[in-house]
Amino acid sequence: MEAPRPTVETPRQPAEVPAQPQADTPALRSETPKQRAEAPERPADGSAQPLTAPGLPAHVAAQPHAAPKRPEGAPEPSAAAPRQPAQAPAQPKPQPDAPSTPQPEATPPLALLAQLTNRPAPPATAARTVARRLKIWSPLVLLLAVLLGVVQLLRPLPDPEFVVAGSPYAFTGDAFVMPWPGEGQAAAEVVGVGSLGTYGERKPVPTASVAKVMTAYVILKDHPLKAGEEGDRITIDATAAKEAGAEEESRVDVSEGQSYTLFQMLQMLLIPSGNNIARQLARWDAGSEDAFAKKMEEAAKDLGMDDTTYTDPSGLDASTVSTAVDQVKLAREVMKNDVLRQIVKMPNADVPGLPGRIYNNNDDLLVSNPGGLGIKTGSSGPAGGALMWAAKRTIDGKEHLIVGATMAQRQAGSNDANAHLKVVKERSYKMIKAVQDALVPATVVRKGEVVGYVDDGLGGRTPVVATKDLRAVGWGGLKAGLELTAGGKGVPHEAKAGTEIGALAVGTGPGRAQVPVALQRDLAAPGAGAKLTRLG
Questions:
Q1: Catalytic hit among 167, 203, 212, 221
Q2: Neighbour count for residue 303 (Cβ, 10 Å)
Q3: Is 212 a catalytic residue?
Q4: Is 322 annotated as catalytic?
Q5: CA-atom Rg of the chain in angstroms
């Protein structure tokens, strides 16, 4: 049999005694923060507090706690013995206040991801700084480069231009020396070739009858004539007839009521230099001599005659003044007019209705020099002797025009206008003859010679060549400038080799010599590379 096991008694635990409330002392009282927050405040003197429990009427909550009444005959409680509270359910023993452990706040997901993935920045170095900057700026620079490239490709192309190859052509031989008059002033040029120079002070001086050239020029601007035409008929008025008797000035013997064609009136104006005819034409054209003088001024301004003043149509007034340089400008224009060119080279003429033949004051020059072309003399006390002159020289079958003006020439010790006129004609003839003899031809450019380039404005150059020999005239020592022109059409961006795209000209003015030029090879528009790299 199994032996009985000994019984082991476990010490009995004392029964739980309900916790006794502790003395109401600050050291032992323990309240939770919530309890402290909800408990009513007690005054410092320990007096009763009004009830503040929620749900009580206001008049009840305002009454202080009343101590319970002691039954009659009951002994007064001793102050030494603590008052026992009524039995209450066991309460957990209050624990002294202890510091609470703060709970960690929840981390947002993105912040948590950043904490897990972020790494500490490496130490800064010059290389890392440069690399970081390159990483930031490279995309922006690339974008700007692309935009700039697009702009460069879409920009309009510059207009192609001609560039002349080489320097001006120099005529060989001894340098030409003009036999200038030695006093007064003079100027001359070969039309289409260049200026022969000037002499004297460029100061306005009286023109005398040379002013009639401007009168004829203005009349034909208002009433143009073609070669062989006679034009309108003009009736001589009383003033012109009366002035025909003036002994102190040049005039033509006409009578009141006579009528002459415009061509005949111009003959009487320019060949015998009739002052009365100049005034008659002015009144017929503008209504008065003063109004016509204003038209002469306007014409001078249009021609660039900046040092010229016209106050009358005949030139008798000493206030009508000009310079040799200005008169050469007028001579160049006058010789373009076929009617005037025909009249000024006449030594004399027969006009029906006049008492006799009229003679030119420079007939001796026209007769002695077959190349002489006139134009107009002038002489007076204030003006001395003056001459606007023209001549020609034919070389290789082509006529070359020479024009000039000689002014303020005087016969020493004489007050005779005719003596002054003789001097100016003699000195002018020497200049005319010297220029005619000095003109020589030359081949300036040979056919097929590269004479320049088409510059596309972006660094591309395509050569152009002369299609013919370029022949010109000049004089010893002259350096003739060359110019490539497009004839007003503009230089193309593209064209095939051999295409004529302009002309090479030598000299100055509309009468200069020129030959066509053509492309030596194909002319192509600038490529993408040239467009991308262009500046400006």
A1: 212
A2: 16
A3: yes
A4: no
A5: 61
